[in-house]
Amino acid sequence: MKGILIDYMNRFTDLSEPELEKIAADICVETFEKGTVLVQQGDVPTQCFFVLKGMVRQYAVDENGKEHTFNFFTEQESVTIFNQHSQDKTSKYALSCLEECVLVVGDLLTEQDMLEAHPVLEKMLRKMMEESMGEMHDNFTTFVASKPEERYKALKEKKPELLNRVPQHQLASYLGITPESLSRIKKRSEQAELKIVD
């Protein structure tokens, strides 16, 4: 599994394979059962994650008890809650395993020790963060400016695997529509594809 992590790190550095293997050896990898809550809404996060296998859902429950899904993290994606700007440092979101997950687990409390042990990690992490934040910004901008059918089309193009891996009600919540609307959009999309084939 750590081979996946080494391949990912290789995108952000020119370190040799043995050097990357040495860093990976010091990194904690854990397996979590489906349904495991990694971070509770309202908690102060002490860990960050990187998905080697499986899927993590980011969501929040509003004052009426309704769940709202904000993101899905799949293989080779980092999972971090950015809350340093808030005074109490509590998370506005929860993170849970939508499938059985194999995750790299980073301890935010001992992060500095890891960076001191491997100084090159700081530059690598900054590049990873820049890419991740750039993608999040682009996705959010596109989402806000698009109609539900356009959001569905974008999802189908960028992350088609979610259509088969995520329950329909969570997918609908992520797209900002009802499950019924999602069913109608999927049906229209399938009919349009059949016309193209004909």
TrEMBL record:
Keywords: Activator. PROSITE patterns: CNMP_BINDING_3. Signal peptide: none annotated. This is Crp/Fnr family transcriptional regulator. Residues 11-57 form the Cyclic nucleotide-binding domain. Transmembrane segments: none annotated. It holds the Pfam family cNMP_binding.
